[in-house]
Amino acid sequence: MRAGLLGQNLSHSHSPRLHALLGGYDYELFQVEPGDLGDFLASDSFDGLNVTIPYKQAVIPYCRELSPAARAIGSVNTILRRPGGGLIGDNTDAQGFAHMLDVLGLDPFGQKALILGSGGASHTIEYVLRDRGANTVVVSRRGPENYENLWRHRDAALLVNCTPVGMYPDTGAAPVDLALLPGLVAVLDLIYNPARTRLLLEAEDRGIPCLGGYPMLVEQARAAAERFTGRAIPPEQRDRALHALRRETMNIVLIGMPGCGKSTVGKLLARELGRSFADADRCIEERIGMSIPAFFAGGSEETFRELEEVVLEDLGKKSGLVIATGGGCVTRPGNRARLRQNGVVVFLRREVGLLPTRGRPLSRDIPPEALYRQRLPLYTQFADTTVENSGTLGDCARAIEEAFHEILDH
Question: Check: CATH 3.40.50.300 for 250-409?
Answer without folding.
Answer: yes
